[in-house]
Specification:
With 328 residues, this protein is mainly alpha-helical. The protein is 72% helix and 0% strand.
Length: 328
Amino acid sequence: MKVVNTTSVLCEIELITRWPEFFGFEDDDLSPPPALEDASLGDFFGKHIYLSLFVAVFLSFLQVLFYNLLSFFGWRKRGRDRVALELVCFVAVSYLAVIGIEGYYFRPHPEDPIFGFDRVACHAGKIMLGYQLWNFLAMFFVENMASWQLAIHHSITASVAHIGIFWFMHGFASYFFGVIESTNVILVWIDIFKNSGLDKKLPTVYNVVRFVFAISFFVFRTILWIKPCYLALDSLFSVFSDPIRGSQAHIIAATFGIFGTIVITSLQVIWGVIIYKNFFKFIFSSSSPSSPKAKTQDSKPSKAKVSPHTSQAKRNGKKKASNKLKAQ
């Protein structure tokens, strides 16, 4: 039986998060961002968010690239902008899912889950901030995309990610910024199918993707969500009674963290109700022998069918009548 060396696997996975150093961005191991209580306004809007801005610009470039590639290959104009956006989302959420799963399940968590430091969590926060900045602006340029739920979601997630760069909620960031994005890896393909017409051409594949997404949402955003959400809220509320961590910066951050966690969880509940409703509707409709629409069509009185021989006889009779008129 082959034994897997977990340490070597983690080292190989961790190399994925080292790419910013190639472009000259800071190494969070050697020069981590300052802790929240030590961060200045210049730190919040300085070099520590350059990677986030780079990600936002890079994703915008990808969106334009995908749009033009779809146009080049003759993709229909309707829905092309939405498909290009979803392809960019697929790239971003796939990356976040990989580093999130590594950070949450295969790395030791910081001793202080709220104000401790973890390099992968910090990196995930930077990528998430850039992704949400791009997503917030991009939704206004795509037809029928903008909504108040998405605006609230993008704004709060971007704000928490921004604060999270500076040693905040690193014990849970890998889950909230990474692991749950694995559900969006599937969700983007549902939107691509709907906006490309593939849901009509490949209905079976489309329904399988919908089914897998509903299951993944149930697992990662409902069942597994409960534990980190509870622990995060419990740790955040404990800040108010802890004299050591009760600085003004900590209390403000904890208050915003509680607000953000509750709002994002509420949105999960709203979306979950819609998803589960559609899921059970799909299950029961597919298992029923006949749909109401079919019954309605069957109940309508059918028109009397005319046999080909009868119609041919009528045409011959008309021809004979016209010939008699011509002869007269």
